[in-house]
Amino acid sequence: MRVSDSKRQFIELSIRFGALKFGKFTLKSGRVSPYFFNAGVFSTGEAMAMLGACYADAAAGIIDEIDGLFGPAYKGIPLATATGIALQQFHNRDLSITFDRKEPKPHGEGGILMGASLSGNVLIIDDVITAGTAIRHSVDLIRSEDATPYGVVIGLDRCERGAGNTSAVDEVRRTLGLRVQSVITVHDIIEWLLEQPDMSNSLDLMHRYREKYGV
């Protein structure tokens, strides 16, 4: 299976900005991974525009059910903003956008939320789902505002087991009832590596890692 143009664009953009790296990385879980993803390093207008377009494409199948976007601090804030712009430009959907603060603001307007009030079906925009803790925090916050957490769009689904036999993404789907879409998965990265003859060593390590931890 060939990687779609949108997924290829996202992978190559991620590599260009150092968001996707190949090598040897120790994760919080203690696993030694042959790749690492960090959406926090995208740092130009061009990058954010392309990023937003890729996220909007990933969300395209469910945006008719969505009333607003929520970007959890901190990485989700620019991701939700870029996605909201792209949804308006390319998908004719002008959605409200809301963010949270890490700490409540004690002065001025106060509170923990910025942007639009949360209402209706809300789509969470973030970079990855690891243990699912951050997503649960967002879900609780959205529900506390009498809105409905409908789903989440992430940049990368690692498609690997958590503590049990299911992935963090599958656990979020099962326990929180959220629709989860990803711009790319680890399988897309492997398919892209198959097209790169000078990266055979990384491809071999990715295959081994997927065989050991994949779901």
Folded structure, characterized:
This protein is of the alpha/beta class. It contains seven helices and eight strands. It has helices spanning 5-16, 45-59, 76-91, 133-144, 168-176, 186-194, 200-213; strands spanning 20-26, 32-37, 68-71, 96-105, 111-115, 121-125, 148-157, 179-185. Helix 1 (5-16) packs antiparallel against helix 2, helix 2 (45-59) crosses helix 3 and helix 6 (186-194) packs antiparallel against helix 7 (200-213). The mean pLDDT is 91.
Regions with little confidence, pLDDT below 50 for 5+ residues: none
Give the number of DSSP strands.
Answer: 8
Distance between the termini: 19 Å
Bin the helical content: 40-55%
Shape estimate: globular
- Secondary-structure element pattern, one letter each: HEEHEHEEEHEHEHH
* Class derived from helix and strand content: alpha/beta
Output the strand order for the largest sheet: 5-4-3-6-7-8
CA-based gyration radius: 17 Å
Major sheet size, sense and barrel closure: 6 strands, mixed
Number of helices: 7
As a percent range, the share of strand residues is 25-35%
Please state the average pLDDT score.
91
Give the SSE map.
Blueprint: H1 5-16, E1 20-26, E2 32-37, H2 45-59, E3 68-71, H3 76-91, E4 96-105, E5 111-115, E6 121-125, H4 133-144, E7 148-157, H5 168-176, E8 179-185, H6 186-194, H7 200-213
Parallel strand pairs: 3-4, 3-6, 6-7, 7-8
Antiparallel strand pairs: 1-2, 4-5
Which key phrases capture this entry?
8 strands, two-stranded antiparallel sheet, 215 residues, six-stranded mixed beta sheet, alpha/beta
Brief digest:
The protein has 7 helices and 8 strands; from the N terminus they run H-E-E-H-E-H-E-E-E-H-E-H-E-H-H. It has 215 residues and is of the alpha/beta class. The mean pLDDT is 91.
